[in-house]
Every structure is written in structure tokens, then in C-alpha cells.
Design brief:
- The structure is a single chain.
- By secondary structure, the chain is an alpha/beta fold.
- Helix content is 33%, strand content 19%.
- The protein has 8 helices and 8 strands.
- The radius of gyration is 16 Å and the shape is globular.
- 44% of the residues are buried.
- Bound molecules: D-xylitol-5-phosphate and zinc ion.
- D-xylitol-5-phosphate binds next to strand 2, strand 8 and helix 7.
Length: 216
């Protein structure tokens, strides 16, 4: 299981320390949530904060753009050091072009689906992306309840990927904890984002290790 702790739930007054915790844990990536207050009803953080994270992070940055017109910022996020760039299907009119531009810029492209968007819309784009990020909550806030329909959605996506003999990563974001993560893993997810479950615990490294040990 790939584990990507979401810094949205970190204490920003101690961001360096929290990044070191992730460095020292067996997490795989840093999940970096960028919100513009337009695509989602919340604003998180932007370039200056990401620049500081990149300076200390010793693991790849899994950047999740919850912004309108993400294609306008591809080179900016490349320059900031994003390794994986997640764009929302709902925010991209020319998704194919955007995905190509992300790859051409040297990053790994990923497409994200809101809870209401069916996985069937991925039929044509699936071979072009390295990862599909399924939102298991409505994006915009940490600490929300996992939407149970996501398990079926994961199964349908797993089937699409296997039928095409692809090795696309299925990442789940929102409400991931010790109850929901094992079920999501069983359904076929291969990566977990976790915010409040990790940073809200007094032993965040143990929570990361627990998610890391999940088997499909
Ligand atoms: C929500 C963000 C998530 C968020 C998850 O819009 O995309 O990455 O940090 O938080 P938890 O794990 O607390 O649901
Ligand atoms: Zn996210």
C-alpha cells in the first residue's frame, strides 16, 4: 500500500517538524492539497508554503489541485517540485491535453474524480494516467465522513484497469481511517491519503505504519 499523509491536517506553525515526521515514517509521499476557493468552498495554501515543504521533504510530492483551470499552473507546480500532479476531471475541458502537458513537463499525471463522477468517464483517458484519485468525500475540507459508495466505485475501476492490463494506481482521499482503509484496500485501492487520521493522532508514525501494512 502506498501511503500519502495529507499535510492539510498538519499544524502549520510546526510544518517543518511535521514534514520530518513524514520523512522518518514509512509513508511514501507527501499529499499536498491546493484549494482556490472557487473549485471548492475553501482556500488552503499556495506556492510559498509548497516551496518550504519541498525544501525539507525527502519523499515525492503528490499534489492535489482543487482549482479551476489547472492547466494554467502546470509549469508553476513543476517548478515548485511537484512529482505527481492530480487534476480534477470536473475542472478540465481538455483533459487529454492537460494530462499530456503534465507528462511533458516531467511530472506523473493523475486524474481525480469527485464522488458524483462515475468511473466510466475514464474509459478513454485511463491508459494515459499513472494514477486515478477517487474522492471519498466532497473535496474542500479534512475530517469528513467516508462516502460508502466509494467501495463499489473502487471495484468498478479495479475491473477497468485489470481488463486493460494496466498498472494504474488507485488512490483514495477523504475519511480514510482504520475502519475504511482495509475495506478500500480489499476493493482494490493501492494508495491511501490520510489527513486527520494521521496528524490528529498522538502517534502519527504508527498510524502511517498501520496503513502501510494493508494488503489488497
Ligand atoms: C479534502 C482533501 C484531503 C483531506 C483529507 O478535500 O483532498 O486530502 O486532507 O482529509 P481527511 O483524511 O481528514 O479526510
Ligand atoms: Zn487531497
Amino acid at each position: 500500500m502506498i501511503v500519502s499523509p495529507s499535510l492539510l491536517a498538519a499544524d502549520f506553525a510546526r510544518l517543518g517538524e511535521q514534514c520530518e515526521m513524514v520523512n522518518d515514517s514509512n509513508a511514501d509521499w507527501f499529499h499536498v492539497d491546493v484549494m482556490d476557493g472557487v473549485f471548492v468552498p475553501n482556500i488552503s495554501f499556495g506556492s510559498p508554503v509548497i516551496k518550504s515543504i519541498k525544501k525539507v521533504a525527502r519523499k515525492p510530492l503528490d499534489v492535489h489541485l482543487m482549482i479551476v483551470d489547472p492547466q494554467r499552473y502546470i509549469s508553476m507546480f513543476r517548478d515548485l517540485g511537484a512529482d505527481i500532479l492530480n487534476v480534477h476531471y470536473e475542472a478540465c475541458t481538455h483533459l487529454h491535453r492537460t494530462i499530456q502537458q503534465i507528462r511533458d513537463a516531467g511530472m506523473r499525471p493523475a486524474v481525480t474524480l469527485n464522488p458524483h463522477t462515475p468511473v466510466s468517464v475514464l474509459e478513454e483517458i485511463l491508459p494515459d494516467v499513472d494514477m486515478v484519485l477517487l474522492m471519498s468525500v466532497n473535496p474542500g475540507f479534512g475530517g469528513q465522513k467516508f462516502i460508502h459508495n466509494t467501495y463499489d466505485k473502487i471495484r468498478r475501476l479495479r475491473k477497468m484497469i485489470d481488463e486493460r492490463h494496466l498498472n494504474t494506481i488507485i488512490e483514495i482521499d477523504g475519511g480514510v481511517d482504520n475502519n475504511t482503509a482495509p475495506l478500500a484496500a480489499q476493493a482494490g485501492a493501492t494508495a491511501m491519503v490520510a489527513g486527520s487520521y494521521v496528524f490528529g493522532d498522538k502517534d502519527p508514525k504508527a498510524r502511517i505504519a498501520e496503513l502501510k501494512s494493508l494488503k489488497q
